[in-house]
Amino acid sequence: MFRLALVALLAFTPTMSKAAEPKLLTWPDLTGRPQPKPDATIDYGADHLQKVDVWLPAGGRHGKKKHPTVLMVHGGCWTTSIADRSLMNWIADDLRRDGIAVWNIDYRGIDRTGGGYPGTFLDTAAAADALRTNATHFHLDTKHIVAVGHSAGGHLALWLAARANLPRNSPLHTSKPIAIAHVISLGGLPDLEATAASPDNGCGTEVIARLVGVPSPTRSDVYADTSVPRLLPLGVPQDLVNGREDSIIPIRLGTGYEEQAKKAGDRATLHIVPNTGHVELVAPETAAWSEAKRLIRAALKIKSAAKR
What we know:
Blueprint: H1 6-12, H2 27-31, E1 40-43, E2 51-55, E3 69-73, H3 89-97, E4 101-105, H4 119-138, E5 146-150, H5 152-161, E6 182-186, H6 192-196, H7 206-212, E7 238-243, H8 251-263, E8 268-273, H9 287-299
Parallel strand pairs: 3-4, 3-5, 5-6, 6-7, 7-8
Antiparallel strand pairs: 1-2, 2-4
């Protein structure tokens, strides 16, 4: 399922020019591994990308106690030809092994019919809301959902938590979005305006224009319902995990958003992990994922790891 465009692969693969620099993971280091599989896949629409993979801890849907649940959003520059939900399979499996269920969503990227604005956002919202309608069947706890997103998925995870703040005249507005209790962004791009003004970000700047749509007389501000800082405060805790050596997401995009969120009154914390690039954030053996999982467990109020 995972697809990485050649151009993107070349752009996203870290290169070490100095002997003193740490050896970072490349995408093939991750995607070349045997890939774990989900327990179930559900459709939330007719398109082949409108799907969610469900990862269930031991006992599956038959236990008496509801599973603590992570809503997971993949990245890939909002572009399907770069990545789909299977990029998150390794960390989804790691959470499943630790007793945490994962609702791993997919969506149509900007390079797919129906993607871009408003489709990419509507897909993300529909996939998230489908968790509520399927929770009983899979025995999922929806009272304290933790949203976890990587890269572009970090933006979408935060945006999901901001849906209650969407302008009422927005095509993206809905009256009862699923409630997100905590967001953990892994190398995310929450501020679309800052991303569009940053040629050194690994997604490029032109991708943002394709994501947010073209200004019109009825929608002159294309960031009002798409860029997370415009929707602050979110009213939920937010943790941002960024790699110090990440060449895809400049650290200032994390520090800049943290400052905006705190100024708006939100509880936001940036965690910078040394010797870490972009791939390490979704590789289960790394210090970055260890930190992310610690934050996930704390957010879910899970005191000790389940035995493997």
